[in-house]
Specification:
Nuclear Transport Factor 2, Chain: A, alpha+beta, 8 helices, six-stranded mixed β-sheet, about 290 residues
Length: about 290
């Protein structure tokens, strides 16, 4: 195993076994005796395995369902840098922060963060963390946000219906600027990067409708809360153009998926999509059934 992979394995244990599972034995195994942890959210550093476990226990006490999940890792001879997602529901004890102790709010949060580990002699000597502290405070309700304004749920739901009926089903690209925020982002696993902005999204819709000219989205379920709208949908169409590297087959396809829309100032700011992409590829004949 390369030194890079060994270092990544140590960092994964830090997140899964120490931060998530609060395993004191593992903390003493993988953290150096002079280990130092710093994070802007907390006013003072935490020292040594026991000091760090104290922090972890405080987090789990504040957020009984606390979790942290590594997403990306970049390794060097002595370093591992990890991008992670973490969250929980503030139903327990106070959260100690630079803003002071925050009593339980009952609110849930999920934020992005990054951690820079320095690894020496097979142990983590230093952990420097950075996280979306502003997002944490906003989601816990500690500081007010624009999204605290009462949303028009019916208007949001109608806007999403307009997105499906006009843009996706009819290919009416003239209304994209009307219903979408200038910073609009479309995120789907089959595209390597988010599709950002008006023109890029128009190109994606054109690409999709060229591959399936008769594509039809049918909403099966829909619900709205605050500035979010969730929709479970079905699509049907005929594969008449190249799609995801697969040449036209003429096959009929039927697929299901779920979208979560985020709205801002009466416009769609983002759409996160997940669908049965494996089944779709099978129907197109790319993957044997």
């Amino acid at each position: 195993m390369s030194i890079f992979n060994k270092n990544k394995a140590i960092s994964r244990r830090y997140f899964y076994q120490v931060m998530n599972a609060m395993n004191k034995d593992v903390a003493h195994e993988i953290l150096a005796n002079d280990f130092v942890f710093t994070l802007p959210t907390h006013p003072e550093p935490f020292y040594g395995p026991d000091g760090f476990i104290g922090l972890v226990e405080m987090l789990h006490n504040s957020f009984p369902d606390f979790y942290i999940s590594p997403q990306d890792m970049v390794a060097g001879d002595n370093w591992v840098i990890t991008r992670w997602v973490g969250g929980g529901t503030h139903t327990g004890g106070p959260l100690k922060t630079v803003k002071g102790d925050i009593s339980a709010t009952g609110q849930a949060f999920e934020i992005d963060g990054m951690t820079w580990h320095t690894i020496k002699d097979g142990k983590i000597a230093e952990s420097i963390g950075h996280e979306d502290t502003l997002g944490l405070m906003l989601q816990l309700g500690v500081i007010p946000s624009a999204s605290d304004v009462q949303e028009d749920l019916e208007a949001n739901a109608k806007l999403v219906d307009h997105y499906f009926n006009e843009v996706m089903n009819k290919g009416n690209l003239d209304i994209v600027e009307e219903i979408m925020d200038p910073s609009f982002a479309f995120i789907i696993p089959t595209q390597k990067n988010p599709t950002v902005g008006y023109e890029n999204f128009k190109s994606f819709v054109t690409y999709l409708r060229t591959a399936f000219p008769d594509i039809k989205f049918t909403g099966l379920r829909q619900t709205a809360e605050k500035n979010k709208v969730a929709v479970r949908w079905q699509i049907e169409g005929t594969h008449l153009g190249e799609f995801l590297g697969a040449p036209a087959t003429g096959n009929k396809i039927s697929d299901f998926g779920i979208d979560i829309f985020t709205l801002r100032n009466g416009k769609i700011a983002s759409v996160h999509v997940n669908e049965n992409d494996f089944g779709l590829m099978q129907q197109m004949g790319v993957i044997p059934v």
